[in-house]
């Protein structure tokens, strides 16, 4: 049941993200709505700005990639995607720490940071946890069952921060 729910969430995220990443949204070029979209070069500039302005604590030794994730040539990207990429990389980095370490102090710090995710300004504006999937994953992990958190990592993070060892 959980895997079906996670697959449903992943498909929904993909379908919602597809227009942002491909520009296939039927918006007329030059329109006010088209100003929401940028090309690859401006996307890279927005990513660099988002990294520079990011104020949350990163796990020790973890830095943001120098470049944003690649997009198809000629793709139009919604402006907010660059900031989303930064926040999700941060969340994924802390998930990796939580799932990979045996050190209780590091695990506790990772959980504190993961709990902050939903409180960030970006998540407040763009992340919908009305189903309780994310908060449920954190709660289960706090009681020793990190299975849902691991599922989130596999579906959302492996492509960003690499597979767990």
Mind explaining what this structure looks like?
- The chain contains seven helices and two strands, in the order H-E-H-E-H-H-H-H-H.
- The protein is mainly α.
- It has a two-stranded antiparallel ribbon with strand order 1-2.
- Helix 3 runs antiparallel to helix 4 and helix 6 packs across helix 7 (147-161).
- 24% of the residues are buried.
- Residues 1-23 have low confidence and may be disordered.
- This is Lipoprotein.
- Keywords: Signal.
The residue fraction in helices comes out at 55-70%
Low-confidence stretches are 1-23
Per DSSP, what share of the residues sits in E-state strands of 2 or more residues? under 5%
The outline comes out as: globular
Biggest beta-sheet profile: 2 strands, antiparallel
SSE ordering: HEHEHHHHH
Q: Roughly how many Å apart are the termini? A: 26 Å
Number of domains: 1
Strands of the widest sheet, in order across it, are: 1-2
Q: Which value, in Å, is the CA radius of gyration?
A: 17 Å
Average of the residue pLDDT scores: 85
**Helix/sheet category:** mainly alpha
Structural key phrases:
mainly alpha, 165 residues, two-stranded antiparallel ribbon, disordered N terminus, single chain, 7 helices
Give the topology, please:
Layout: H1 2-22, E1 37-38, H2 40-53, E2 77-78, H3 80-100, H4 104-117, H5 121-126, H6 133-142, H7 147-161
Antiparallel strand pairs: 1-2
Helix pairs in contact: 1-7, 2-3, 3-4, 3-7, 6-7
Give a summary of the structure in a few sentences.
The chain is an all-alpha fold and 165 residues long. The protein has helices at 2-22, 40-53, 80-100, 104-117, 121-126, 133-142, 147-161; strands at residues 37-38, 77-78.
